[in-house]
Design a protein that fits this description.
Elements (H helix, E strand, L loop, with lengths): L4 H6 L6 H7 L14 E6 L9 H8 L2 H4 L2 E6 L4 H10 L4 E6 H9 L4 E6 L6 E6 L14 E4 L4 H12 L8 E4 L2 H10 L4 E5 H10 L4 E5 L10 E6 H6 L1 H20 L1 H11 L6 H15 L2 H6 L6 H15 L22
Parallel strand pairs: 1-2, 1-3, 6-7, 6-8
Antiparallel strand pairs: 3-10, 4-10, 5-8, 5-9
Length: 342
């Protein structure tokens, strides 16, 4: 692969050891891991929005093609469903799923594993219109809250309640799909909601709503959020494909960081139904804020810390009464490309 301006502007590529160098040598024609092109699917955590612009940018810029990957992006139906579909897939499939949901799926016997992190912080937030004066977790008692089944907030609600001595019997929980949930909390029909930071940014910055926002990361639940996951068999049999996919994906994140408007323009060409470009930019920036952390600057994009993975595992295992999964079955940093933010 030829060195280009994106390398000089935004990243330095760390190659550790001869094995790593050999594993990343480009094949003839620019393919990064093997001859030919492999049709590969990437399943999003939910519907396609600005927070998935990086994948479409990577397609249009040719980053995946340079790695021998012809990528197709499809929508998901919650991180749990994405993790399960990825783990049970027959062919080359990667998924975007929150680590908590993936741990739950793995504990249930599906051999799926995280190969890189996207959300280095818990992306879940408790949001409410300011008029309801919910400024701390226990203010939820006597009020209603909306969550989405199968999404990251459902996974984190129990440990959040436990960490803050919140009496769930005093909270009215409404299970709503993302669209109706967002409308309900925006109009005040429900007093609070647990949702991802990407949605919050679009409400606060896009719709200009005055809201109280509590980060679960800062209220007793500092776990990981979205990760890139893959079937364990795929990881073992096609390590070059995994390396190439991660290199192209984090390369796209780096370019997107300096060119968010261009990334959204590319996304909208693929999905013209996304008519509010500014709202999609807020979603893009919200997700990127969770990736470009101090850990990424020290260890490289996608790096997962053992202590934090263990904390996330133990938290979810206790909350959901799961079978404990060995750490080595949950994640690996072995295929990360060593790309660093500025």
């Amino acid at each position: 692969m030829k060195a280009t301006g994106w390398v000089r502007r935004t990243a330095r590529l760390a190659l550790v050891g001869a094995g790593a160098i050999l594993g990343m040598v480009a094949a003839p024609g620019g393919q990064g891991w093997a001859q030919g092109v492999t049709d590969t699917t990437y399943i999003a955590a939910w519907t396609i929005s600005g927070s998935q612009a990086y994948a479409y940018l990577g397609i249009d810029k040719g980053y995946y093609r340079e790695e021998g990957i012809a990528l197709k992006v499809t929508r998901g139906f919650g991180s749990g469903d994405t993790a399960k579909r990825t783990g049970l897939a027959d062919g080359p499939v990667f998924g975007e799923a929150d680590l908590t949901s993936m741990i739950k799926v793995r504990a249930e016997g599906v051999r799926v594993k995280a190969v890189g992190i996207i959300a280095d912080r818990n992306p879940t937030q408790l949001v409410s219109l300011k008029r309801y004066n919910i400024t701390k977790p226990r203010d939820l008692e006597g009020k209603s809250i909306a969550i989405t089944a199968g999404a990251i907030e459902e996974t984190y609600f129990t440990p959040f309640a436990q960490a803050n001595n919140l009496d769930r019997s005093k909270v009215t929980v409404l299970t709503l799909a993302p669209g109706p949930k967002n409308a309900a909390v925006s109009t005040g029909k429900v007093q609070a909601a647990l949702q991802a930071i990407t949605t919050t940014w679009m409400m606060v910055h896009g719709k200009k709503l005055e809201m109280n926002v509590l980060d679960l990361e800062d209220h007793g639940v500092p776990g990981y959020g979205w990760a890139i996951v893959a079937r364990e068999e795929l990881i073992e049999r096609s390590p070059g494909l995994v390396r190439g996919f991660l290199r192209a994906t984090y390369r796209a994140f780096l370019y997107q960081e300096d060119h968010p408007e261009e990334a959204i323009d590319i996304l909208v060409r693929h999905h013209p139904e996304l008519t509010d470009k500014q709202a999609e930019i807020y979603g893009l920036k919200a997700k990127a804020s969770l990736l470009f952390t101090e850990t990424a600057r020290k260890k490289g994009l996608g790096w997962m810390e053992e202590q934090k993975v263990r904390y996330t595992r133990d938290l979810i295992t206790k909350a959901w009464k799961l079978k404990e999964v060995p750490m080595q079955d949950l994640y690996t940093n072995a295929f990360l490309p060593g790309l660093f933010p500025r």
